[in-house]
Specification:
Layout (H helix, E strand, L loop, with lengths): L1 H29 L8 H10 L10 H16 L5 H18 L11 H6 L1 H9 L1 H5 L6 H18 L4 E3 L4 E3 L4 H19 L3 H8 L1 H23 L3 H5 L2 H19 L1
Antiparallel strand pairs: 1-2
Helix pairs in contact: 1-2, 1-3, 1-11, 4-6, 8-9, 11-13
C-alpha cells in the first residue's frame, strides 16, 4: 500500500515541485521586476510538504498522501459506525488545530484530518453509489440538476478554503462537499464514457502542477480587458469555469 502511494503521489509531488522551482528561478533571472524567492526556503518547504509559494496546488498531493495513509489504518475497523465516529473525531481535532501553533503541520496532516469524514462516507457508501447505475436516466438527470442547483445556491455561504486555511462557515463544509460530490458522481453515471473527461482524468496531476501560472495570467489579462477587479473574476462561478476551460486548452499541447 505505502509503496504504491509513494509512486502515485509523492514522486509526482517532488518531480513537479522541482520543475516549479526551476520556472520561478528562470523568471527571476529574466525579469528584473519579479519578486525574488529563496531557493533554500522553498526547498525546505517542499520537504515539509505543506503550502508554500512554489509548491502551490501540489500541497494537495502531500495532503492526499497523509489522508490515505491515516485512513488505511482507520479502514481496518470493521464497524462502519465506528469508522464514521472516529473520522468525525479526527475532523474536530483537525479544525481545532488550525487555531493553535500547530496550524501548519508537515505534509498537511491537519488538513487531512479535516476531510477525513468525507473520505469515510465515500468508503462506507461505495456500494450504495453503485446502485445509481440501476436508476433511470430521468432520475439521474433530476438528481444531477437538483444537486447542481443546491450547490450553486450554497455557493455564497461557502467560506471553507483548505489551501488558504480559511474556515468560515466550517459547519457547512461537509454537507456542501457531499452535495457537490453527488453532482459530479451523477454526471459521471450519466455520461458513462467520455474521451475528454477520461483524458483529463489521466492527466490530472500534470494539470494540477502546471495550471497555476497560466491561471494567474488569464485572470490578470481578463481583469485588464474587462476593467474589473481580479477578485471579482475569481469569485464569479461562470468566469472561473470559462478560465479553467481556457487554461486546460492552453496546457493541452504541453500535456500531449
Amino acid at each position: 500500500f505505502l509503496k504504491s502511494r509513494v509512486r502515485r503521489l509523492i514522486l509526482p509531488y517532488f518531480f513537479f515541485s522541482i520543475i516549479n522551482i526551476g520556472i520561478c528561478y528562470i523568471s527571476i533571472r529574466t525579469n528584473p521586476n519579479a519578486h525574488d524567492i529563496s531557493l533554500w526556503k522553498n526547498t525546505v518547504g517542499i520537504l515539509y510538504g505543506n503550502m508554500n509559494s512554489v509548491v502551490g496546488p501540489l500541497w494537495f498531493l502531500s495532503a492526499l498522501f497523509s489522508l490515505e495513509c491515516m485512513f488505511y489504518g482507520l479502514s481496518n475497523l470493521k464497524n462502519w459506525l465506528l469508522i464514521l465516529f472516529v473520522s468525525i473525531c479526527f475532523h474536530i481535532i483537525g479544525l481545532f488545530s488550525i487555531y493553535t501553533p500547530f496550524a501548519y503541520l508537515p505534509w498537511s496532516i491537519n488538513l487531512a484530518l479535516i476531510v477525513m469524514p468525507i473520505f469515510a462516507i465515500g468508503y462506507i457508501g461505495k456500494e450504495t453509489c453503485k446502485k445509481i447505475d440501476s436508476l433511470s436516466n430521468i432520475s439521474k438527470i433530476l438528481i444531477f440538476i437538483g444537486s447542481a442547483l443546491v450547490s450553486y445556491l450554497l455557493l455564497p455561504i461557502t467560506g471553507f478554503d483548505l489551501s488558504m486555511h480559511k474556515f468560515v462557515n466550517w459547519y457547512g463544509y461537509i454537507p456542501i462537499a457531499l452535495v457537490g460530490i453527488t453532482t459530479y458522481l451523477t454526471l459521471a453515471k450519466l455520461l458513462q464514457t467520455n474521451k475528454v473527461l477520461e483524458w483529463l482524468g489521466r492527466n490530472t496531476i500534470v494539470i494540477i502542477a502546471l495550471h497555476g501560472i497560466v491561471y494567474q495570467a488569464l485572470i490578470y489579462l481578463s481583469s485588464l480587458t474587462l476593467g474589473i477587479s481580479m477578485w471579482s473574476i475569481r469569485s464569479n462561478f461562470l468566469s472561473c469555469i470559462a478560465i479553467t476551460i481556457l487554461d486546460v486548452t492552453i496546457l493541452s499541447p504541453i500535456i500531449m
